[in-house]
Each structure stands twice: as C-alpha cells, then as structure tokens.
C-alpha cells in the first residue's frame, strides 16, 4: 500500500471516530453532575409505596443509594495468567493500600482546606466512566419510546486514555461533598466480591483526591486502565457480573446476547466460553446484538480485547431478530439456529444505577417504566422463541421497578402456558445477598395516579397502562419469588434484577417446524396497545425481513483452492488438520485484503448460512498481515491478536526464548541478535527472514503456576522486532517482574543517549512494510 493510501485510510478512521465522539458528546447530559442533587421526592415516595425493601430497611436503602458507587473489576479468568496477575495486584498494590491509610488521611485532610468546594469523585466514578457495562438506556419519553428511540443518561463514552472524566457526587442534602470529609479521606482496603468465583473480582472506594495524593493509587489506576485495554482485566460494575454467572455457560453452547452493547456482559460470556484455555477455538459461539449501530462499535472495542474467534457482532432490533439457520455438523442438514443460552439485558429505566449516574435523580419519573414495559416484553418474547428447548434464558435490568421486572416475567410465563419456568437459583452464588421477587405492586402514571388493578384504569389511559403491568393472584404458583433483586445497601452495590428461565417445550405459538419464524407476531406485538397478551390467538409467522447484501464489514472466507494459502501453509508449516477455509479477508481485492482473519468453525457456519439475513458488524480475529519483503518467501507475517487461536497448528517459524529475551524484545525497538541470549541468537541465525512466533514459558514462583507467553515478530537481517500492542507489552513485562513504565523510559533513554555503533539506522533496517502500525494501542 502506498503512503498516500495509508494516510487516507488513517484520516477516514479518524473522521469516523470523531463522528462517533461528537454524537455521544452531544448526548451527554449538559448539566454538570456536581449540580445534581441526590434527592427525588417522587422516586422516594414511589419505592416506599411499592415496598421495594422492608420498612425497617428503608433508611439504609436511601442512605446507600445517595452514596457514590465503588469501582469494580474482575481478572479475566480464561487467561492462563489470571492467578499470576491477581497475585501481582495483591502484592504490588493491595498490600500497600492496607497500610497507607493514615498517610492518605493526612493528605486528603490537607487538601480539604484548599478544595472544600470541589466535588468528591471516587475512583469508582473515574473508572466507571470507562466502564460501559451498565450504561442503561434511561429517561425514555413517552413519545420517543413508541418509535423505539431511547436516550442514554449516563456518560456512555470512555476516555480514550481511560482516565477520568468524572461524575461529581453530591451529598444527600444537595450540597456538594467536601473532598476532605471523613469518608473520602479514608483509604479503605479493597474488597473482594465473595460471591464471584475464585476471588477474581474486587471493589475499590477511593476519592480522586486520594488518587492524586497517593502514589500507589495513581499507579493502580493506570495499571487497571492498561490491563483492561489488553483484556486481562475487565472494569465492570459488580452487579453487572451476575447475569453471565447465572447463565451456566459451557464451551459448546450457542449463545445469543440480545441487547449487548457496549458489551461488558458479552465479554464476560466470551470469557466463560473460553474457560478451557487448552482449546482456543471451542465448539460454541456468542452472537452479540444491539439495535444501536454506534453502540455496536463500542462493543467491537470491548470484545476485540479478548481476541476470540468465536464471536460475531450484529446490529438488529432484538424484537425482530431474524431467524437464522445452521448446518448440523453431524447430519449435514440445514436447521433453524436455536440458542442454548440467551441473555436479555433489556433497555430499562436504569434507576438501579443512580449511585453511578447521579443524573437519574433529576430525570427519574414513574412513566419511564410504563414506557419500557412493552419493548421489554417483546425482547423477552423473541429471546424465548430463539431459545432451544432445554435452554436457559437470563432476563436482567438495572431497574428496581417491578413493572420492568416481575410484571414482564409473570406475563411471559403465563403467555407461554407451561413452556417456560423460573429456575431456583438460591443455591447458586451462595454469598450473593439477594431479595426475592415481589408478589404485589401497584402502577403509578406520570401524573401521579396509582392503580392496583387494570380494572381501576380509566378508559382513556388503557392504551398506555396495560393489563400485563399488574400482579395477578397466581404469583405464588408462578414462583415469582425466584426472581432476584439486588438492593444496594445489602452489599454496597448498584441495584439490579435477574430472572433465570428455562424452556421445557415449544412455545404455544410456535410449531416445532417453524419455531424460529421471522420475528413472530407474538414477539413483535407482545403487549402492544390493544393486545390482550395472555389470550392472544396463535397466529402464523409474519412476512420475512430481508437484509440482502447488507454487511458493514464484509468478509470473504477462503475457498479450498485459495491461491495464497499454499505459501503461507508451507512457510509456517501449518498442520494439515487446520481448516484454512476458516480464514477470511474483508475484501476480495485492495487494502482490506492485507489482513487475514480467522473465525471458529461454528461462526463460519452461522456466517455462511445467513449471509443475506444478518447485519454484520464484526467477526473474526486478525491472524496474518501482509508484510512483503524481497528476501522473504511468504508475504504474510503472524499477528499477535490471533496467535493463540492458531498457535497449536503452527509448526514452523517458532522459537522458544528466555525471559531476558522477552524483556529485551519488548523494551527495545528492534534489537540486534547480539543483544539476545546465546541460544536465541543461534536460533535466529538458523532461521530465514520473515514472520515468526516466539514462546516463553513463564514460571511464576509466587503462585507456582506456569503460563506460556506468545509473541509474534519479524526476524530481520541482523535484528528482531516483536509485534505486540502497547498494553500487551506492558502486561507481559509486568508478569516478568519488570515495571513497564520504568523499563520503557530507560530503554528510550538508552536509545537517545547512545552514540556508539550499537544503535544506528540499521535498527530499523528491515521492518516489513506496514509493520509499525501494529504496535499501537488502537490496533490492539
Ligand atoms: C442495558 S444496555 C445493555 C448493556 C450490555 N448488556 C452490557 O452489559 O454491556 C441496553 C442495550 O439495549 C439496546 N437496545 C435498546 N432497544 C433495543 C432493541 N429493540 N433491540 C436491541 N437492542 C436494544 C441499547 O442500545 C443498549 O445498548
């Protein structure tokens, strides 16, 4: 590719990003957070009346929701290095935080005199502005809901560098909290979320002032941002981690996440799918869907970090998600694609997030739940249609409101006439405190009128307030108590609602043969004004929706006789068992052909069967990039993103290296062979020029665990370069016991200060064309 073309591509990418940023910038609440008063009499009266918590708990509940939310993160469990990373976090940061309390207090007290009028902003908020997990869709006006447009209330956009664009927090009386009040001046020890498996998830509560004043906190903050970029940890609100845990995911499952953007739960699901790190391309797959095209791209960023070949991102209205087909590997026949697991994390009023999004205090109204009830029903209905018999669906919201929660679940159980039931999860996650589903509630309109039953609703309001919003006498027999409500004061979290459903037979309106009919009448109309919900006639499927030719990011799988494959196969000695028809390019010719991606068999199966039905956004992980060099027999080099997916099939161009080599290669731009260990030097000399994969078996004496570290690179004439993105470099260096910031600065000084023969123009003697881009964070 020529320089001009490259520049043009970069400009286009930048322009697209600017467009997205600009859109979301205008959607951010204009009112500064610090002005937000954490009070709303209507909210308080509403939930007191609903009996959302016992009367004896009410004050605790209210006090807690007025507090800022702690930040939470989890270590990515599917990575073989999880244990090592956790040890590192505890050793390098947490152990010091437990002992730095008194210093922190002094520091923040000092500051309090200077900054009494500044807002107290917790690390939770600075991190949460980059945690997109629970940016629920809130504040839906009555007019806008009917056409499906929703408006985000939270700060939905991460800072590109992961640093703070903080929400302010305000005291309960509405005055902004002083930076130096007792609470913000305490450095509380990090809290392990006991209910999360293997001690991998943690909560932190530190003010911005503390972060600024405390070196350990400052380092912890940038550490979390960096490790999160490289996919080794995920910053995610604690309660948002619950639904994927209750999905009981196995590596062979076909999984659908219906309202998935920005993708925190999808990422967690992918992580569980890859729980067996010995199998980089398991049988199952995950499809993440969202109706909002821009938010789908936020999801691309989230998911790419995990480098999974087993996912696909699509862009549909979940209430009308098209029916897909799948080729049965055993019989070779084409069948409707039904999912083993479905997540319906539906758009909701989001009042469970008011600790994180104080703006909700200002915008909250009882009408929001009423507006959302219909779309929530329709998403759930379509999800159940697409769920296989025997499969499990998890429904969740970050709303306290029974109209968005129990009412939707009860309505659907009745409508399904015994085909689904609520699963008893009381034995799962035993350390998680939860309240049982509510059996009675009332409906309040935006005008403040309360109704206990549909019969009380005046005729002129009946098209808006629907029968399905009310509890009925059979709540007990529906086991509605098996729903779970997480209330903030029980374990210092946000609010959340989860219901786990299992499908035991075909839905009444689905015949087994047409069970995935195009967005059936039921899901498309469930609880629409005028519908009677429970007694609806069984109707035939509606007309098919076609998306012929619509593909945002087209891809073309390799044919069996692909002309490039033989030279790649020969050069890297790909095993015969590797199915190269799982490889694809994004275009038949031109620029996009320079990268080759790999997807799992199952994803290829879905993609090939449904090419003209799905609005694809993204799939596949980059595994080879074009790197032409006159002295190299293969025009492609291996790419770091996809190396773990194909590593087991690559038998040529590999080399075992030592820890000292890893450090040298990651901290120096293009080190000469002479700077590597004798063994590695000699192996380099035996190898021809071109792409390669280097492997270092990291033996961690602290945890007694071993984990392989893979790095792709380029063997040049006299030097070697690695192609490892910035944050992954940092991660590997940390595992090797090296502080990346210090090491990289030292390396830079070494180069700058060098006048001798060692570092010359030959340092960049033979980088393959296009290579340098690969090490930037944006490409990770
Ligand atoms: C609560 S957020 C999802 C959060 C996400 N599950 C996560 O954990 O990162 C709800 C999402 O639903 C999407 N949404 C709203 N209406 C939808 C519809 N009809 N079909 C599909 N997605 C929809 C919104 O764009 C939003 O991204």
Automatic annotation (TrEMBL):
PANTHER family: NCL1 YEAST -RELATED NOL1/NOP2/FMU SUN DOMAIN-CONTAINING, RNA CYTOSINE-C(5)-METHYLTRANSFERASE NSUN2-RELATED
Subcellular location: Nucleus
EC number assigned by the record: 2.1.1.203
Organism expressing this protein natively: Bugula neritina
Name assigned to this protein: tRNA (cytosine(34)-C(5))-methyltransferase
Compositional bias of kind Basic and acidic residues: 18-35, 103-112
Ranges annotated as biased composition (Polar residues): 518-534
Amino acid composition bias (Low complexity), ranges on this chain: 166-179
SAM-dependent MTase RsmB/NOP-type domain residues: 163-504
UniProt xrefs under InterPro entries: MeTrfase_RsmB-F_NOP2_cat, MeTrfase_RsmB-F_NOP2_dom, Pre-PUA_NSUN2, PUA_NSUN2, RCMT, RCMT_NCL1, RsmB/NOL1/NOP2-like_CS, SAM-dependent_MTases_sf
